[in-house]
Amino acid sequence: MRKSLMDSLPILTNGLSGKKYNTLVSLSGHLFDQFLINEALDIIESAGGSFRLVRCEVGQNTNAMSFSELEVGADDSAMLDQIIDSLTSLANPRSKEGIRKERELSLKIGKISAYSTEDSMPRKEQAVLILGAGRVCRPAAEFLTSKENSYCGGLNGCDVGGFHVIVASFYQKDAEETIEGLKDATAVQLDVMDSERLSEYVSKVDVVISLLPASFHVAVASACIEHKKHMVTASYVDDSMSKLDEVAKSAGVTILCEMGLDPGIDHMMAMKMIDQAHSRRGKVKAFTSYCGGLPSPAAANNPLAYKFSWNPAGAIKAGRNSAIYKFQGEIVRVDGNELYDASKRFRLPELPAFALECLPNRNSLTYGDLYGISAEASTIFRATLRYEGFSEIMATMARVGFFETELHPLIKGSRRPTFKEFLNEILKVGSSTPITTGSFKGSVGSDEELVERLIMLGHCKEKATAVRTVKTIKFLGLNEDVEVPAACSSAFDVMCLQMEERLSYGSKEQDMVLLHHEVEVEFPDDGPRENHRATLLEFGRTKNGKTTTAMALTVGIPAAVGAQLLLQNRIQQRGVVRPLQSEVYIPALEILEACGITLLEKVETS
């Protein structure tokens, strides 16, 4: 009999890997004070079975119930049946007279799945349909097709990959380029709005990964539900997807959403830290999360220290979103027009060379609900990371009017002004401040004149900020005697055009993904408070002269991992789900680590 289960919680496992038959066992009751959990584990071990603690919630006093969820494995079905029968007898003991005795232990058995090492190696007939052939697709396709792919060489002796992948794109050529050099992959042309052809392809595979824009997901999900096929996407769950939850459950289908980076890895990191704290009777007092897709330091070679690997319109618009979060018990709201001004200096002790800043990221409060910490946490804050100085320049550009989407009278006609003429015009708009100096003469030319103009119009308070903004204006070519293209009809169009051209990555430049969580945990009986930190730092990878971005890796591979877990029947939850449950995040984080996407974890006490 185990002396103390609480002492062994962090290592509560006895070699589950390699067992052919597995099931999920849920136990609730007085597990610890009556040593019922110890008896249950002894039953499993004595029968030759194995177990792994999936989840544990300990009652806060002698009258409160505790809850544990175990994954139980055995070499054959008869052994597993014996274990289940013995656990059932433990939960429902009878006296010598055959009378059922009351015992405060509840037992629930999940679905039994058989997957040995041989069975979990993907069978040839298993196939995945990936919709969309953008940058994210290649890492996902490579992960799934090759047992010896360049991302993951295997996990605890179990190969990954080996599935047949069908990449479907509106343009056949894009799909063909994506699968170039991959074995057991097929490229097809598909318009997902052609419901008949979409249905045909969905019916032929086991899992569908949708890397399309979010507006297409409902159509894809509906086809998956119709044919009882699981689906994975990296996009947020919106109202239209949420409405499919019950019908997906009824069909026995899992629609695994938010399985990318942010959302995705951020969820899994957070739930791992929070569940570990709760399993030790801790309460989360503060949860903070920071994430950013950035150029590597070597590629941050422009005044903004930022670059785009896609159209910048979405990123610019995101900089105008309002935000709400909780800080030390107070609700803080940030207006979208003041978001850049709300940025704060940010440093990581683990990465002291990075000079960063953070901006509040939309609604942080919803994450308190998702993670089950709203009632206990006094601080819940999520933020976007940028290199320091980014926000003050963007805030100045916004005040100048470069992000306005209304048609601008100077560029909406047939006569096309130059960028310099447009700059002269926009610097005179939106301010009643009189210009008293005579140096402008209706035009701005030198750097000093531009700096003075920005300050006098009230766009900058500090000269240093104005100087950095002028450097950005010049870097983007906004002061050049080049005609503004006819495609531009607003200041926003002009800015997007120039940012996309001047702030793009070179063929040999790397991007970078940085994700950082901090969880402050308070324990009962005045125990020391713990600060748990987890950091993910990933750079783009270059192989054979081709660079795969860190963003593509950290979005594409998690989506592919989600598909693999579904193919191996390791995810039992049905409906529209996020990767918040341990049956998803535990194996997924293990596989990601095997792929080199590793978390740096640290705990400090105070």
Question: How would you describe the overall organization of this protein?
Answer:
With 606 residues, the chain is α/β, with parallel strands linked by helices. It folds into three domains: 21-92 and 104-114, LOR/SDH bifunctional enzyme, conserved domain (Alpha-Beta Plaits), CATH 3.30.70.2690; 127-259 and 553-596, Rossmann fold; 265-394 and 507-543 and 600-605, Dihydrodipicolinate Reductase, domain 2 (2-Layer Sandwich). 32% of the residues lie in helices and 24% in strands. The chain contains 20 helices and 23 strands. The strands form five sheets. Strands 8-7-6-9-10-11-22 form a seven-stranded parallel sheet, sandwiched between helices. The protein has a seven-stranded mixed sheet with strand order 15-16-17-12-18-19-23. β13 and β14 form a beta hairpin. It is globular. The chain starts with a helix and ends with a strand. Residues 1-11, 95-102, 111-123, 154-158 and 429-442 have low confidence and may be disordered.
Low-confidence stretches: 1-11, 95-102, 111-123, 154-158, 429-442
N- and C-termini, Cα separation: 35 Å
Structural class given helices, strands, pairing? Answer: alpha/beta
Oligomer designation? single chain
Strand order of the largest sheet: 8-7-6-9-10-11-22
The biggest sheet, with number of strands, parallel, antiparallel or mixed sense and barrel status, is: 7 strands, parallel
The CATH homologous superfamily of the largest domain is called NAD(P)-binding Rossmann-like Domain
The coarse silhouette is globular
Number of strands: 23
What integer is the average pLDDT? 86
Proportion in β-strands: 15-25%
- How many domains? The number is 3
Helix proportion? 25-40%
Please identify the top-level CATH class of the largest domain. Alpha Beta
From the alpha-carbon coordinates, what is the Rg to the nearest angstrom? 28 Å
Alpha plus pi helix count: 20
The CATH architecture assignment of the largest domain turns out to be 3-Layer(aba) Sandwich
